[in-house]
Design brief:
three-stranded antiparallel sheet; 2 helices; alpha+beta; flat; 2 domains; 16% helix; 40% strand
């Protein structure tokens, strides 16, 4: 996933947006000798970072505390993050 910032007329970040790069698109880019993650976007957007399954991010939890989360799934419909210390198998977490 490519995370890009939408910019206002003054170049200030308004919001972030996630652009999914499918495996198919990644393979097409690879075949064309392009970078898998595109950093050049429209002038009103700025690349911030990329995010992939298995990577870690610091986010604020429901109680307002910063926590370290592992990216467990990225899709067009849903992005799933799990606390880094949660060692339960995927099948167990899904049942909860």
């Amino acid at each position: 996933m490519e995370i890009v910032a939408e910019l206002d007329a003054n170049g200030n970040e308004v919001r972030w947006e996630g652009i999914i790069v499918s495996r198919f698109e990644a393979m097409q880019r690879h075949r064309r000798n392009e970078h898998l993650i595109q950093t050049n976007h429209l002038p009103e957007r700025r690349f911030v970072f990329s995010l992939a399954g298995g990577e870690h991010v610091v986010m604020t939890d429901d109680e307002g505390n910063e926590q370290l989360f592992r990216v467990t799934a990225i899709s067009r419909a849903n992005n799933e993050f799990t606390l880094h210390r949660d060692a339960r198998p995927f099948t167990v977490r899904r049942k909860i």
